[in-house]
Amino acid sequence: MAIMCLQSDRALTYITTFTSKREQPIYNALIGLCWGTGCILGPVIGGGFAVSSATWRWAFYINLPLAGLISPVYLFLLPTHNPKPDIGTMQKLATIDWLGAFLFAGIFAILQVALTFSGSLWKWNNAGPISLWVVFAVFLLAFILQQDFSIATTPSHRLFLVHFLKSRTMVLLYTGTAASSTGLGLGVYYIPIFFQFTKGDSPIKAAVRLLPYICVFVTAVMLSGGLLPVLGRYQPFYIVSGVLLVFGGALMHTVHLDTSTTSIYGYEVLMALGAGTSMQVAYSVAVAIADKIDTLNAVGFINVAQIGSLSIGLSIAGCLYQNLGFDNIKSALSAYNFSDTEIRAALGGAHSAILASGDLALQRLVLEAIAATLRDIWILTIVAGAVALVSGLLMKREKLNLEMTAGG
């Protein structure tokens, strides 16, 4: 996750530096295209490794030779840009808000660990999760105070751009982007899980089922990237995005074991359109409205909204899946004598002892419980859509000038 965030931020920084404001929406959309291609190829390649003798670990190992293959492009072909050539490397390193970075990273890491293990590994009232939540609260409070009083840094070098919170547009761009990113992540992660459980799909086939979602998402990202410099208005993208996410999530909330695959494809297309319509828009808008000195900071601000919210959203969804899923399956199998460990294993995949028992009636009970759990997950998509819609309605009805030339 950290590497993905770093690479995404660098790519967006390059686009901001070397393209004009009119070109930026298109190039930002191309990042979405590359991301979508990865979402298509990743599960196929990973699924292939998972069912082969190489094992699933090679889905991660393969990144090393691929990075080595691409590294000459980074080293020799990408242009260089030094915005402060008169300042040495050590001086630049000294301006970094190291304490803020440590606290911010701790907030994300501890929150995700707490959400992942609370209820699934430890009971909520045990010392483990309580300790994690207390430490999370301490880190969060320490970060707020450190940023507010510029402890171990200066106001101009603080990690979090506090002055952006005074901008109505910046805050709404943040919430709108966070909402679309969360909606996207939930679909990418939980649509294949639904098909693997209810249709008995292999990892590769489940990835193929995701193709309509990803292809429509990429198309929506490219269209919004092309329309933004033409229209100059960004508010409609968030309103449309919110409406589509709400409708798509609401329809997915009705899905059960016997819902046709065609219907599910239609529902996921609505969600994909909703997420893609506003996913990359904020980058170009934030750069256009920010002061020149804050253009790169604006990119980082929106990047936190996009990737940070995606991470948090999936952690919350995972927590709900583990806790609600356990309760639903345990309730459905109350007449049986399965242990908590066996019930937890049923949430992990079709190869669990319960689902592999051969008892069709038993399998039906478990799958209905899992389908009910996934229906609850889609409530998060509805909430995300509502946040995007409200953000759009509160935005200014302004038209931006995206005719400016590149700055680098």
UniProtKB/TrEMBL annotation:
Pfam short name (any one): MFS_1
Locations listed in the record: Membrane
Keywords assigned by UniProt, alphabetized: Membrane, Transmembrane, Transmembrane helix, Transport
InterPro entries: MFS (IPR011701), MFS_trans_sf (IPR036259)
Protein source organism: Aureobasidium vineae
Keyword Nucleotide-binding: no
PANTHER family tied to this protein: MAJOR FACILITATOR SUPERFAMILY, MAJOR FACILITATOR SUPERFAMILY (MFS) PROFILE DOMAIN-CONTAINING PROTEIN-RELATED
TM regions (residue ranges): 26-46, 58-77, 98-118, 130-151, 171-191, 211-230, 237-257, 269-289, 301-324, 377-395
Keyword check for Protein biosynthesis: no
UniProt name for this protein: MFS general substrate transporter
Main location: membrane
GO molecular function, one term: transmembrane transporter activity
Family: Belongs to the major facilitator superfamily. TCR/Tet family.
Membrane topology (UniProt): Multi-pass membrane protein
Top-level taxon of the source organism: Eukaryota
Any one cellular-component term (Gene Ontology): plasma membrane
